[in-house]
Design brief:
With 95 residues, this protein is mainly α. It contains three helices and no strands.
C-alpha cells in the first residue's frame, strides 16, 4: 500500500500534462513548459500526501524528501509520454 502513491502521482501528472497540452498550451512553442508544470504539480502532490498520510510515501520523515519524490514522479510522467510517442511512431513506420 505504501508504494502505490508514487505511480498515482505519475498518472495524475501525466493526465494534467495532457490536459495542459490540449486545452491551455495550444501553441507547440509552449510545450517546453510541460515538464516544469508536471514537476511542480508532482512536488505539491508529494507534499500534500506527506502531510495527509506520510506512510503512503515509503514512510518518510522529511517533507523535502516528499517534495523530491513528487517532483521525480511528476517528471517521470514526461518520460512515460515520450515512451508512448516513440512506440506509436515505430508502429506507424512499420505500416
Amino acid at each position: 500500500m505504501e508504494i502505490i502513491s508514487i505511480p498515482v502521482i505519475t498518472i495524475i501528472c501525466y493526465l494534467l500534462g495532457e490536459f495542459f497540452k490540449l486545452i491551455i498550451l495550444r501553441k507547440k512553442k509552449r510545450y517546453k513548459y510541460i515538464p516544469i508544470i508536471v514537476g511542480g504539480i508532482g512536488g505539491v502532490l508529494g507534499l500534500m500526501i506527506y502531510f495527509i498520510s506520510p506512510e503512503l510515501l515509503l514512510n518518510i520523515t522529511n517533507p523535502f524528501v516528499a517534495i523530491a519524490i513528487g517532483i521525480i514522479s511528476g517528471l517521470a510522467s514526461t518520460g512515460g509520454n515520450e515512451l508512448v510517442k516513440q512506440i506509436l511512431k515505430k508502429e506507424e513506420e512499420k505500416k
